[in-house]
Each structure stands twice: as C-alpha cells, then as structure tokens.
Amino acid sequence: MNRLFVSLTSMFVAASILGIAPAQAGIQDNVADYLFKRNAKKALESYTDNTILKTIDQLVKNIRTLNNDAKKLHADKNEKYLDKTIAAWRATVASFNRSQIFMYGPAAQYDFHKQLSIWPADKILIDNTLDKMSKGLLQLGPAQLRKMTASMRGLNTVKYLLFSKGLKRDIGTIKDTELDYLVAVTDVLQLEAIDFEASWVGTNNLSADKLEIVKKAGLKNWSSYAKEFKNPGEPYSRYLSVSVPLQELIQESTSVIEDILPIIEELATREPLGKLHYWDRIDPYADILNGLKGVENSYLGGIPGSRGTSFSDLVATKDAVLDKRIKIAFAHAQKRIETIRSLENGPQEKRELAVKVAVSECEKLLSRLMVATPLVTADPAVEPFAPYGSNI
User: Quick one: fold of 240-392?
Assistant: First the structure.
C-alpha cells in the first residue's frame, strides 16, 4: 500500500514538473512580448513628440524669424538686415533638412515638403513675375502667390532672391520688387509651415497666435495625425499595428541616407565656393550633416535634450552590440563629412580619399540600420502581418 502510494506520488510529481516547465516558458514568452510591445509603443510616442513635433516646432520658429527679418530688410534695405535674413534662411534650411525623416503622412499626402522647399525654383517664371511687378502690371501678395505653382515659392525661391552663384548678393543689386517678392514668399512659407504643424498636432491644439493666422487665411481644419501615429490599432488610427509606423520611421531614415550618398560623392569634384554645385546647394556639408542629424534623432527617440524610449532601445533589446555599432556609425559618418569640409581647399587626392571614406561610413550606417529593421518591425509582438489580415 505504501509502495503504491509512493509510486503514484512520484509519477504525479514527475508529470507536474514536466508540465510546469513548458508552461513557465510560455508565460515568460508572453511577458517578453508584452514588454517589447509596450516599449515599442513608448518609442513611437517619444519619436512623435520629441522628434517629429519638436523638429516641426523649430522649423516653424525659424520660418517666422525669416519672415520677420525679410520684412525688416524690405522696410530698410541695408547690409545688416540682409545678413540677418540670410542667417535665418540658413537656420530654416537646417531645420527643413532634419525634417526629411518624416516625409510620410501629411508631408506625402498633402505635399507639405514640396510647398516648403520644392527643387528647383522656376527662375524663368520668377523673373517673369518680377518683370511684371516692376512694370506695375502685378501686385503680388501671399494669397495670390499661394495659388501659383510651388516652384515659384519656398526656400529655394528665397535662396534665388538672396544669392547669386552661391554668394550673398550685393545689397545694391537687390531691387525693391525683389524684396516685395521676398516678403510674399516668406509670408506663404509661414502659412505652409503652420499648416504643416497643424496637420500633425491638430488645428485646435495650435497656440493662440498660430490659430489666428490659420483662421485668417481660411486654412483647412486638421485632426491630429500624431494621435493616429502614436496609437496604432485604435479605431481612429489608419495604422493597424505597432509594426507599421515603426516601419515608416526606419524606412524614411534609411531613404534619407540613400539620398545623401550621391551628394557626398559629388563633393570630390565640387567647384570652388561661388559657383554652382550639386543641386545648387549653398552649403552641402551643412545639408548632409543636418540630414544625418535628423536620422540620428529618429533613431535615438528625439532631438538632443528631449529623448525618451527609442528605436535604439528596441534594437538593443534584440542585439546590444548592433545598437552600439549603429551609434558609432552615426558619429563616424558625421566626422567624415567634417573631414571633407576641412579639405575644401586641400589637395585633390586627399579630398577624393576623404569622400570615399565618408561614403563607406554612410553605407556602413545604412547597412546596419537595415539589419536592425526586421529585428524590431518583424517581431511578432508588434504584429507585423496585421495590415495583411493576419497576426501570425
């Protein structure tokens, strides 16, 4: 009797142990999935609030400064205000280049990026318009200019009015009609930038002064795209799972790097300052560095000083070494661009070598980001197949 009891007890204990082990493993997997998905949602929130919205906020601030300085230059044409307007334009271009990482959503659906900085500016149409203005045949205001083709306004049009062959224009050569045009262009830029911000934060969430500008111009009332982006899977969001906005986040970042590569390659044969160069850029080094900084902000979950849970954290969960290598690659790529800048007037052979090294560093960064992408976006916890009708 006792032996039978002992045998039955032993069998029960053994069966229990064998059953508990898989059960515990299943619980651990479920917990890991839950934590990863929770962190992925936090990463989306941080990216939206601390990268997208803060970058747009800075872009709007810089454009409003540009608009104010252009008006001062218009009222009092002198070297001081010309320099201030150019400085504001440079700051605005820097912000715009950092915003290239979110060309999806409103930027893609409503062409906000093209409204702000389409390339190239249509110099023939601009000159024709200026000619009509000088003859008194046309009085150009922001409302009228906004209805014209986007290639007649935006940051590249401002550049055309302020620079000639890559150099600041002589104040004496700038006509009053060109300053009239400049003010109209920056007025429209301000409207487009605030409208762009409204599309992300929601019109009703704009500050009082911006809301007044929007209402006065009769602009469309926007709901918050940021709310949709941060809350995938909710009925009001067009994103069906956490994986989808994460894919947009990283795909746009890699696209920016791909666009930067041919600009770097062109630096090997760039002509001296004062002549036209790749894509008619005034400072290609700053453009490249700000593009890379935008990608870095995207990966690290915000602009410097405002960072939270990030795509980097999600990668580190899967492969900490890869995450560190990506961060190192960001630093190396930016350093290599600075090296090319330092060789602006240096030996051609050294310059060409520096360009090759910079291209290699950026390609290395790109490849590492692409390796990291499926580790995060294809994890079952973030439901990568939800848009296709499956949660497998």
Answer: Four Helix Bundle (Hemerythrin (Met), subunit A) (1.20.120)
Cis peptide before 120 (omega within 30 of 0): yes
| Residue ranges of the chain that CATH labels 1.20.1420.20 | 40-233
Of the candidates 296, 321, 319, 292, which has an alpha carbon nearest to the alpha carbon of residue 307?
296
> What is the distance between the alpha carbons of residues 258 and 292, in angstroms, rounded to a whole number?
11
Q: Let me know how long the chain is.
A: 392
For 202, the token pair is: 């929601």
Region(s) of the chain under CATH 1.20.120? 240-392
Is the whole model's pTM more than 0.85, yes or no?
yes
Rg (CA), the chain: 27
Beta-carbon contacts of 50 under 8 Å, excluding residues fewer than 6 positions away, are: 301, 302, 303, 306, 307, 308
- The strand ranges marked E within 44-169 are 163-164, 167-168
- Quickly count: other Cβ atoms within 10 Å of residue 255's Cβ: 16
For residue 105, the SS3 value is coil
DSSP string, 325-392: HHHHHHHHHHHHHHHHHHTTTS-HHHHHHHHHHHHHHHHHHHHHHHHHHHHHHT-GGG-TTGGGT---
Please provide the CATH number assigned to the domain covering 40-233: 1.20.1420.20
What is the C-alpha separation between 329 and 297, in angstroms, rounded?
A: 14
8 A C-beta contact, residue 285 and residue 278: no
Positive or negative torsion for Cα 189, 190, 195, 200: positive
pLDDT digit string (tens) for 21-65?
454 555 555 888 999 999 999 999 999 999 999 999 999 999 999
Contacts of 136 (CB under 8 A, 6+ apart): none
User: What are the angstrom distances between the C-alpha of 325 and each of 20, 368, 369?
Assistant: 39, 8, 10
Count Cβ neighbours within 10 Å for each residue of 328-367 and write b for 16 or more, e otherwise: ebbebbbebbebbbebeeeeeeebeebbebbbebbbbbbe
Average pLDDT of the residues of the chain: 89
Nearest to 191 by CA among 157, 220, 233: 220
CA-to-CA distance for 193 and 202, rounded, in angstroms? 13
- 377 has a pLDDT exceeding 80: yes
State the CB neighbour count (10 A cutoff) for residue 14.
10
Give pLDDT, residue 344.
86
